[in-house]
Amino acid sequence: MKTLLRRMLPGTLGLAALLLLWQLAARRYSPDQFPGPVQVAQACRELVVDGTLWVHLKASLLRFVTAYALAVLLALPLGLLLGWWSLGLRVLDPVIQILRPISPIAWFPLAVLWFGVGNAPAVFIITLAAFFPLFLATVAAVHHVPAAYLRVAKNFGASPLLVFRAVLLPGAFPGIVMGLRLALGAAWINLVAGEMLGAQSGLGFMIVDARNFLRTDLIVAGMLIIGLLGLTVDRLVALGERRVRRAWGQA
């Protein structure tokens, strides 16, 4: 119990300091301009009581999970393949380096033309935002596996499949997890932007709708909810990482 309290104390102090600074800053403005913690807490309660939060939360999580799963299914195998196959990487690297710096926001007009309005363009934008961080991190993780490990496995007669499964994947795992977390952050950030692209539900739509009605308390409440959900998802990924590390003897 004492160990748990020691771990939680620094984070709790940081949150308390943030709330204090927020309250002090809010005193300099009217609630319509900069709502304080009390006004935002009341707005959160309003969203929970009337059921609005659950409708938008469900829509956002569904889009996020769909887009993130698509990004993982595309980026992870491709990153492992091109990290292993250097010739393929040299062929595709110019294309990747041209597309990578383009902001997902720049794809908005084309996304609307290709997919119309609604869920599809939002999922496309989120998938695109998550793809490149995971892909590049996976390629780099494979490259950083010491070549001596692979040579030793081959000298012992391990098949290519066994080398990939027992040597390459565990060796590249820390870098892959870092890519998963970077992709998670990029996808979550662009979730709101994607939902502003003609969607009629979701946390991003909720923020835009609150702006139209000049409800700054609901805007800040939506931002706070997005941040807390992002923290929760990141912690879940970290928990999964620790379990896999223990399974592979890396803990």
Describe the structure.
There is one protein chain. With 251 residues, this protein is mainly alpha-helical. It has a single domain (44-247), classed as MetI-like fold. The protein contains ten helices and no strands. The chain has helices at 2-26, 37-49, 52-84, 86-99, 108-115, 119-143, 147-155, 160-195, 203-212, 216-247. Helix 7 (147-155) runs antiparallel to helix 8. The mean pLDDT is 83.
Strand content: under 5%
C-alpha end-to-end distance: 22 Å
Which residues sit in consecutive blocks of at least 5 with pLDDT less than 50?
none
- Counted beta strands: 0
How many domains, in number, for the residues?
A: 1
Q: Assign an overall shape.
A: globular
Helix content: over 70%
User: Can you say what the CATH homologous superfamily is?
Assistant: MetI-like
The radius of gyration is 22 Å
Write the SSE topology.
Layout (H helix, E strand, L loop, with lengths): L1 H25 L10 H13 L2 H33 L1 H14 L8 H8 L3 H25 L3 H9 L4 H36 L7 H10 L3 H32 L4
Helix pairs in contact: 2-10, 3-4, 3-6, 3-8, 3-9, 5-6, 6-8, 7-8, 8-10, 9-10
